[in-house]
Design goal:
Elements lengths: L9 E9 L11 E5 L2 E2 L3 E4 L2 E5 L6 E7 L5 E5 L10 E6 L11 E7 L3 E8 L5 E7 L4 E7 L7 E6 L4 E9 L5 E4 L12 E3 L2 E2 L1 E2 L4 E7 L6 E8 L2 E8 L18
Parallel strand pairs: 1-8
Antiparallel strand pairs: 1-5, 2-3, 2-6, 4-5, 6-7, 9-19, 10-17, 10-20, 11-12, 11-16, 12-15, 13-14, 13-16, 14-15, 18-19, 20-21
Length: about 250
C-alpha cells in the first residue's frame, strides 16, 4: 500500500484580543471572510487562528465576532514575518443595552484622523528600571505576571506623552527586547501601559470604547493624524455620554 503524505502551507496566523482587556476572544461564532467569501481558519486556542494552503497575497480580511464590532483589516505580507506571518487584531466590544459589563464610549469626527488610542494612566503593567540601547533591551523594575501582548505604550513622565513599542521577545519576566530602538529614549520609573485601540473611518469618524474595570477611569487619549499627534486626558466617569460634535480643526503636538 502506497504511503500518503500530507503537506500544509502556512498562510497566516491571526490572534484576536479584546482591546479593552488584552484577553483572547472566546472561540465561538467568529466568521472570517475575504471579498465576501468565507475563509476556513483553524482554531489553535488562546485566541489564535491559522490559515493554511492559501495564497500569500495581500488582502482585506473581514472579521465578524459575536459581541464585538465588525472590523476589516488589511493584510500586507511585506510587513509580516516570512516564517510566521502573524497579525494581532484588537476587537472593540459592542455596547450592551443590558448586562453586567459597563463601557464608556468616545465618538466623533476629526477630518484627517488616522488612529485613536488610549491608555489608563494610573494602571501601569510595568515600571522601567533601565534601557540598554545597543541591545534594544528594557530592564523592568516590576511587571505584571501576564504580559503577552505584542505592543505597549511607554509613558514619558516628563512630557505625559507615550510612544508605542513593539516586543520582539521576552528573555525573562523582567526583560523585554524591542523590535525597534526607542525614538525618545526613556528614564527609570517611566511606565508601560496597555493600549486600548479605537476605530477610525476614512472620513475621520472615530469610535473608542473602554471598559469600566473599577477604580480610576482616567485615560490619556491620543489622536494621530496626517500631520502629527494630539493628546487629551479624559475622566470617563465625569465625561458624559462621550458624543462629540463634528470637529474640523484640532491641535497637533
Amino acid at each position: 500500500m502506497a504511503d500518503v503524505n500530507f503537506s500544509y502551507r502556512l498562510a497566516l496566523i491571526v490572534r484576536l484580543v479584546d482591546t479593552t482587556t488584552g484577553l483572547a476572544i472566546p472561540e465561538h461564532q467568529i466568521l472570517f471572510t475575504e471579498s465576501g467569501q468565507a475563509l476556513a481558519l483553524h482554531r489553535r486556542g488562546n485566541g489564535l487562528y491559522v490559515l493554511l494552503n492559501h495564497d500569500r497575497a495581500n488582502m482585506t480580511l473581514q472579521i465578524d465576532a459575536k459581541g464585538y464590532e465588525p472590523v476589516a483589516v488589511t493584510v500586507d505580507y511585506e510587513r509580516l514575518s516570512p516564517q510566521f506571518p502573524e497579525l494581532e487584531i484588537p476587537l472593540i466590544p459592542l455596547q450592551k443595552e443590558k448586562g453586567f459589563e459597563d463601557f464608556y464610549t468616545l465618538r466623533g469626527v476629526k477630518p484627517g484622523l488616522t488612529a485613536v488610542t488610549a491608555v489608563r494612566v494610573e494602571k501601569p503593567v510595568a515600571v522601567i528600571g533601565s534601557y540598554v540601547e545597543r541591545r534594544r533591551m528594557l530592564k523592568l523594575f516590576s511587571a505584571r505576571m501576564h504580559m503577552d501582548e505584542h505592543a505597549y505604550a511607554l509613558l514619558h513622565q516628563d512630557t505625559h506623552q507615550y510612544e508605542e513599542i513593539l516586543v520582539e521577545k521576552r528573555p525573562d519576566r523582567l526583560s523585554m527586547k524591542l523590535l525597534h530602538l526607542l525614538s525618545d529614549g526613556c528614564k527609570a520609573q517611566d511606565t508601560l501601559l496597555r493600549i486600548v485601540r479605537g476605530r477610525v473611518e476614512s472620513d475621520g469618524t472615530y469610535l473608542l470604547r473602554v471598559r469600566d474595570l473599577g477604580g480610576s477611569n482616567v485615560y490619556l487619549v491620543r489622536y494621530e493624524g496626517e500631520h502629527g499627534k494630539s493628546y487629551e486626558q479624559i475622566d470617563f466617569e465625569t465625561f458624559g455620554d462621550g458624543k462629540r460634535k463634528e470637529e474640523t480643526q484640532w491641535d497637533y503636538q
